[in-house]
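Example complex used in Figure S2.
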Amino acid sequence: GIQVEQSPPDLILQEGANSTLRCNFSDSVNNLQWFHQNPWGQLINLFYIPSGTKQNGRLSATTVATERYSLLYISSSQTTDSGVYFCAVSPHSGANSKLTFGKGITLSVRP
Amino acid sequence: EAEVAQSPRYKITEKSQAVAFWCDPISGHATLYWYRQILGQGPELLVQFQDESVVDDSQLPKDRFSAERLKGVDSTLKIQPAELGDSAMYLCASSPGLQETQYFGPGTRLLVL
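Predicted assembly (224 residues):
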């Protein structure tokens, strides 16, 4: 099946700093989503971005489908950005559309 | 904004007991997913429905797990009997159709003693 690798596994930032989270995937995809999992366990959808660039406030994401990677940018980080960030993909092949998740990136933003 | 609803939010049970989880997807969403997330890992798909039909249940342990979506709207996931290794977060998600944005509910955290 498709492989998803996220890096770095852990990230510690000072409040106000910028960061880049990376997601590499092993096959072409129809769906790529970035999620933030809050301390209560809920997965908050950040971006649906199988290709191209999107921005939402301090967050932006870019997926280069031909090179099989996606980047999530966090600018002016806040303590509320802390948590686990997941990249998840669904490949072109196959009849279903299940998401395969990476192992996540644990972000800690310190005041 | 419409949300995926799940209940209960927390469940503690003893091994060999039966448990059931309920999910109500966003209205109009044809595709419904059940994922399981073990602590420290990403979610993994258990079963996917398109309307009332199962699209993929290849990772569902069918000897003890069952899932249904009888009228193509809400869904129930059941475990009987529960085992210690079933302790995890059970997440329901829905999307308007295949390969579209998936929206997740708050999850049910299960602890089997």
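The mean pLDDT of chain B is 95. Chain B has no helices and eleven strands.
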